[in-house]
Each structure stands twice: as structure tokens, then as C-alpha cells.
Design brief:
Layout (H helix, E strand, L loop, with lengths): L1 H5 L5 H25 L2 H7 L4 H7 L3 H24 L6 H18 L2 H12 L14 H16 L9 H17 L1 H4 L9 H19 L6
């Protein structure tokens, strides 16, 4: 009885407020990076006091960690599920993971911007990685890569899978976050037709780098 009286249920309003804080934090951190982002600015944008924001997140590190988990958590789970889908061939799993990566970054451009800020900030960045459960994804990808080589299903251009991973991941991050700023003419990377072309090219590059003999 007493435990029920002292337990404070999470209200739908509190959940909506927390989601709004995470969304605002994602925008600020993706534009400014960790060091330059101020909690006061996030609170002001939401019409909150700094103290009210601290009710949900006790400091900037905690907010950043929660924002990263929220931003990348779904993508991480999707990639792990696809990589672990043993009812499909290695080539199918890798292709579907590439497609899921492109779809996720295009549909949520802040993911690309967060990665770029994460890299650019260097030593100013908090001591954590981008993906929650991040240690699983590269390990599983490398294992799948080696299994594909041994079985002959993959005939990669390079023995080290880091080359393929770098090209596949980096291309979409650059495409979404930086390409438009570097081109002299107006370019909309998120235009559906442009996205479709990029997705096809990403899959084509992945197949070439990984040695998957398949024509789309």
C-alpha cells in the first residue's frame, strides 16, 4: 500500500516532455557538437527552465547519452536483426543491412550530422561511441565477412573488411550531411529521386567491394 503511494507513475505528459527534450537536444548536438551545446539553449527552445530540464536529465553528459541512444537505438537493433537473420544468405543479410543503413540516415539526417560532429569534435567529444551496443555490430559484420570469404559467397576486393565498411558507411554520411554544401549548383540530397539513385549506387558499391555477384 505504502509502496504504491510513494511510487510516481510516468505520465504521458512527462513522456512527451522527455521526447521533446531529446528531439531538441538532437538538433543542437548535431549542429554544434557536445562542447558548444548549452543546456540553457535547449531549455529556452522548449520554454522550460534549466532546473525543469534537470528534472529529466541531471547534466549534459546524461542528456547526450540519452539522445545518442534514442537517435541510433532503432537503427542498431535493425542492423543486428538483419545481420543475425540466419535464414538468409550472407549476401542477402549484408545487402539488406546496407539498404537499412541508407534508409535510416536519409529519413533522419541528424544521424549523419551527429556522426560528422562526433568525428570533428575529437577530444572534446564525451567518452562514448555513436552506436548503443556498438561493440556487437562491427564484430558481427567482420564475422559475417570472414564466413562469406571462407564459403566463397563473398569475393571481396580487399581482405580487410574495414575498407568496405568505410566506403559503405562514409558515403551515405557524406552524401546526406556535406555534399550539397560542396556542389556549386543547387542540390537536394533528400529529394526522393536523388535518394533512389544514391541507394542504388550504395548497393552497387557494396556488392562490388564485397564481391557479391548480383545484378539489380
Amino acid at each position: 500500500m505504502n509502496s504504491q503511494a510513494t511510487t510516481k507513475p510516468t505520465s504521458s505528459k512527462a513522456e512527451r516532455t522527455k521526447s521533446a527534450i531529446l528531439a531538441a537536444a538532437e538538433n543542437h548536438f548535431s549542429r554544434l557538437g557536445f562542447a558548444a551545446t548549452r543546456l540553457e539553449d535547449i531549455a529556452d527552445e522548449l520554454g522550460m527552465t534549466r532546473a525543469a530540464l534537470f528534472y529529466y536529465f541531471k547534466d549534459k553528459q546524461m542528456l547526450y547519452d540519452a539522445m545518442i541512444a534514442d537517435a541510433f537505438g532503432t537503427l542498431t537493433n535493425i542492423l543486428l536483426e538483419l545481420i543475425d537473420a540466419t535464414d538468409r544468405s550472407i549476401a542477402e543479410r549484408l545487402e539488406q543491412a546496407v539498404g537499412a543503413w541508407v534508409d535510416a540516415v536519409v529519413s533522419r539526417p541528424n544521424l549523419a550530422r551527429l556522426i560528422m560532429r562526433f568525428v570533428a569534435d575529437g577530444i572534446d567529444q564525451p567518452a562514448m561511441r555513436i552506436f548503443t551496443g556498438n561493440e556487437q555490430i562491427p564484430a558481427k559484420f567482420f564475422q559475417l565477412f570472414q564466413e562469406g570469404r571462407q564459403s566463397g559467397e563473398l569475393k571481396p576486393l580487399h581482405d580487410d573488411p574495414l575498407h568496405a565498411a568505410s566506403a559503405i558507411l562514409g558515403t551515405t554520411v557524406f552524401y546526406v550531411s556535406a555534399l550539397a554544401a560542396l556542389l556549386p549548383n543547387h542540390f537536394e540530397p533528400l529529394d526522393p529521386e536523388q535518394v533512389a539513385v544514391h541507394r542504388r549506387e550504395a548497393l552497387h558499391s557494396a556488392r562490388r567491394l564485397l564481391g557479391i555477384n548480383k545484378i539489380e
